[in-house]
Amino acid sequence: MKNLDKDNIIGVAALLVHAAKIDEHYTNDERVLVKKFIKSYLKDDNEEDILIKAEEVEKNSNQLLSFTNIIKKNTEEIKSDIIKHLWEIIISDKTIDQYESNLMRRICGLIYFPDKMSAEIKLRIINSR
């Protein structure tokens, strides 16, 4: 399943950081969730170093959604996994605002991921808390 290279992981992690920051509250819990994503793909790397690189990329990028091209080219399984990580970050503060919902709709549209599947993932995460 896991066939993203290190640069792709940094790009996707930057997208996760963007999702975490969209409500203007980037918490340590959200950082931990991004590191969990990184660790799930890069077992032998220091996830803190990768996260710092991803935060830099996110801060310096006005074309963040270009990272969706990385995701779009991958399998449904990887897309689903990334959507799950995005929802975990968004839901971690127990509220979903309109900007977060809009971001998820845009990402799903750009990576050709069905809204229905995204909603099912979101509900599974909410119900597991």
Helix content, binned percent: over 70%
What's the end-to-end separation, in Å? 26 Å
CATH fold label: TerB-like
Overall tally of domains: 1
Mean pLDDT score, rounded?
92
Tell me what portion of residues adopts beta-strand conformation: under 5%
CATH class: Mainly Alpha
| CATH homologous superfamily heading | TerB-like
CATH architecture: Orthogonal Bundle
- SSE pattern, N- to C-terminal: HHHHHHH
Radius of gyration: 13 Å
Class from helix and strand fractions: mainly alpha
Q: Uncertain spans, ≥5 residues at pLDDT below 50?
A: none
Largest beta-sheet characterization = none
Taken from the alpha-carbon principal axes, the silhouette is globular
Q: Tags for this entry?
A:
TerB-like, 7 helices, mainly alpha, 129 residues
